[in-house]
Every structure is written in C-alpha cells, then in structure tokens.
C-alpha cells in the first residue's frame, strides 16, 4: 500500500490543509465539517409495504453501519424510512453529538419547508439535523419558486435546527437562480448529485462552478461503474489500481471521489464490506495522475441511474 497512511481534511475547493488518521472531513462554506464517507438510506433502503410499521431490516442494517463507524447518515422523507433511521440512531447507543444526520424535503405542493422539516424531525426523534437538503429542483416551475424555497431553507438554518442547508440534483441554472434569492445569506453548503466516472457532469463546467462558488459536492451512487454500469472502460484501471494498493475496485471508486474533495454516499447490507471500506479507505490515496486516468476512461461511456426523465433534454449535464 501507499506509505502515506493518513487522509485529509479538505475544504470545498478540494484542497487538503491538514492531516488526520481517519476518514477525511470536508469543511463547508458555513464553517461546519462533514464526514466524507456517508451511509445512504436511499435506493435499496427505500421503505416498502406498510408505512406505519417499522421495517426491522432497515433498522438493523443501519445499526450495523453505525456500529462500524458510519456516523454520517444520509436520509430523506422520499425514502419513507426516516422513522427507521430514527429508531436505528436510538438503538445504536451512539451519542447524538457524534453523528452527522442528513435528511431532505421533497417540496410537496402547498407545503412549506417548515412543515416538512418539523415532520422529519419528529420521525427522526432528534432536535436538529446536521444537513437539510432540497431533494430536487424538478417541482419548481420558475426561478422565483426556487428562491422562495431557498429562503424557507435559510429560515430553518437560522432557527438552529439544521446546522447546514443545501440542495440535491441541481444543475447550474438551478444554482444560479438560487444564488439570486433576495436577502440570501449565501450559497447552499452542499449539492448532492449522482456522480461516478460515467456521469461526470461536464467537469470543466458544473464541477468548476461548484468550486468557484464554494459549494461542496456530494456523490451518490459512486460505485455505479462497478455495479450497475459494468462492464465498461474503467474496469481495467480499477482492477490495476486495486492490485497496486491491495484493495477492491469498489474502494478505488470511493477513493476517486474522496481524492477530488467530493463526499461519497454509499450503502451495503454486508457488514464485512462496510467494515473493510472504513478500515481501508484511510490507508491509501490515488495520485493526481490516477484520478485523471479514471476520469478520462470514464468519459468514454455515459450512464445515468436516476432522474433519467428529468435530465432527458441534456442527459450529460
């Protein structure tokens, strides 16, 4: 393995000013820090069946993740499992102050952000969340509607019940509209997007814009090139680097995000896999040349796993 066994604290520009022995943290534009590896309760953890009955499988899997060091927990009201996330937090025995909890609002028609947020807090059984996101911009019919919701998000942050606020699945035009919100205190802290080598969102455009504005990027589905979109052109690169560093191709895929200063949200019900990710990811770093090689090969294929209909007009954005 690489002789440098430490990882880094980064800021939203991707720089790495100080060292630590653990999974890195990213400093957000509001001064808070976010663990750069998170456990997601979306996709396979979506609530199925009776909405009022707790799904013990979701709870148990989440408790397992927490006990293996995944203190960054990424949920959403749309996943239907905020109550399960809350139950897992309670059962884990881990002090609330050690956890980084995210949830998201779907911006239901006729409902304020405050109403949705209060409902989420009640289901989670907590007094505050560390990050609250607008789940997507696709409900909005105009820039004014995006701005109204962003003003409501900032009011939630000002109340102290959400330490940071941000967005998800926003393109540049949605961000530009949001930044024009009258009286806004500043840009979103985070934009969470599907991101992997086969969906790089025009790295000289959208990603550069985020860094210019100090908006941190979170990647969901970062393992797509290993799972849903395999086989593909990055496979030989992943395999070669996995052999070099003594890790798996999936760990190379996660490290590729971290080494760009991008938070990675992933999930698994396999405890051994969760444990090895947490143990191995701090032990190696890709070189800038290797990060670039994965990106270059990834541009040879395009694959989107989510929001295909909404992005159909220009699917590479």
UniProtKB/TrEMBL annotation:
Domain of life: Eukaryota
Keyword annotations: NADP, Oxidoreductase
Organism: Chaetomium fimeti
Protein name in the entry: NADP-dependent oxidoreductase domain-containing protein
NADP-dependent oxidoreductase domain location: 40-297
Positions of substrate binding: 135
GO MF annotations in UniProt: oxidoreductase activity, acting on NAD(P)H as acceptor; oxidoreductase activity, acting on the CH-OH group of donors, NAD or NADP as acceptor
Active-site residues, as the UniProt record annotates them: 79 (proton donor)
Family: Belongs to the aldo/keto reductase family.
Stored Pfam families: Aldo_ket_red (PF00248)
InterPro entries in the cross-refs: AKR, AKR3C2/3, Aldo/ket_reductase_CS, NAD(P)_OxRdtase_dom_sf, NADP_OxRdtase_dom
CDD domains according to UniProt: AKR_AKR3C2-3
Site entry: Lowers pKa of active site Tyr: 104
Signal peptide: none
